[in-house]
Amino acid sequence: MSQPGTPGGQPGPQRTTDRASAPSEPTRAYAELTAGNQRFVSGAPRHPNQDAGHRAAVADGQHPFAVIVGCSDSRLAAEIIFDRGLGDLFVVRTAGHTAGPEVLGSVEYAVTVLGTPLVVVLGHDSCGAVQAAREVVATGTPPRGHLRAVVDAVLPSLRRAEAEGVDDIDDIVDIHIAQTVETLLGQSPVLADEVAQGRCAVVGVSYRLAAGAVRPVAAVPAGFATLDVPAGSTDPAASAVA
Questions:
Q1: Omega before 221 within 30 of 0, i.e. cis
Q2: Best label site of 9, 30, 86, 161, fewest CB within 10 Å?
């Protein structure tokens, strides 16, 4: 439901997501995210589901269409870079999008209890967690406190990059994103079963801090993230930027 435009000619917030209209299958959910990111990159966000009316509408329950397992980096606010609002995204954030038991449980809750059809691993270039892990490997000096848990979770990605002859930090980040996708599916039989049944998909994407755009890095089912935005996207704004 469109709201009047705001001063200066910018489009006002739109209310688009409730139980009836939320994307209920993976391809449509991914289309909503990519369309929203395109709006953000182009400087024409619609700010859907951010008005007072929608705030009241979702107070009694949530029906998010995507789980975002993202890095905690302060520049990686999912609702902003995907141009979404209240109730749209179920966001779980840790440094380096590391996936321990609490993260896995949160993802399983969203997928099985809330019926969320899409899980997105959201990483970014110049990731500090990856850089910290590289420094530990280079110096042999273990990190202080609980930062060690973050570094330990990133080390398998560094070993994989070394085995593949990859040294560029952003290429290592891509490997780490793909590794997190594999970790989610490998450590959660519940999530793996939802994907096998076609009720959910898992996509790893990399965000460019300067450009603001995301690009797919890994996906299960394979090739899922290369799909075009399907016709009839539930977001009225999607067709304007698809």
A1: yes
A2: 9
